[in-house]
């Protein structure tokens, strides 16, 4: 029994998964971003299915399933098309700079979408 206690005390403790603070912050930020993306996609689907596609008599338009499918396709096609090509370039570029630029572009696009919906932009606000 004494030998087992000595072995357990001598064994080094394993470092936790999130021991690197920068990696932990990156991982948490990435998870929050992905959850936000999925919530946005789900909100769009629910909005199309319950608000836009509903007729005044309570029935649904015949194009409602296609519209919901269109949202799902629009969410997945960019990943399928651009990920292989973007992966080649991002492996060669500075990782931090690439992440900062792409996140800044995403923020600009989200801000433009918000501005367009409040400015009554006919093309974008009807989406």
Outline the fold blueprint.
Layout (H helix, E strand, L loop, with lengths): L1 H9 L10 H32 L11 H29 L2 H24 L3 H4 L2
Strand content range: under 5%
Count of discrete domains: 2
Poorly predicted residue ranges: none
Total helices: the number is 5
Helices and strands, in order, run as HHHHH
Q: What is the tally of beta strands?
A: 0
Largest sheet: none
Structure description:
The protein folds into 2 domains: 19-81; 93-127. The protein is mainly alpha-helical and 127 residues long. Helix 2 runs antiparallel to helix 3. It is 77% helix and 0% strand. 0% of the residues are buried.
Features:
single chain, elongated, mainly alpha, 2 domains, about 75% helix, 5 helices, about 130 residues
């Amino acid at each position: 029994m004494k030998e087992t206690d000595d072995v357990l005390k001598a064994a080094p403790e394993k470092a936790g998964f999130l021991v690197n603070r920068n990696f932990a912050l990156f991982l948490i930020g990435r998870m929050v971003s992905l959850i936000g993306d999925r919530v946005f996609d789900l909100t769009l689907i629910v909005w199309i299915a319950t608000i836009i596609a509903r007729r005044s008599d309570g029935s649904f338009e015949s194009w409602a399933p296609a519209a919901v499918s269109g949202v799902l396709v629009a969410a997945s096609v960019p990943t399928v098309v651009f990920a292989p090509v973007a992966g080649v370039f991002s492996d060669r570029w500075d990782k931090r700079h690439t992440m900062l630029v792409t996140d800044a572009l995403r923020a600009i696009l989200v801000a433009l979408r918000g501005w367009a919906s409040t400015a009554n932009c006919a093309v974008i606000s009807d989406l």
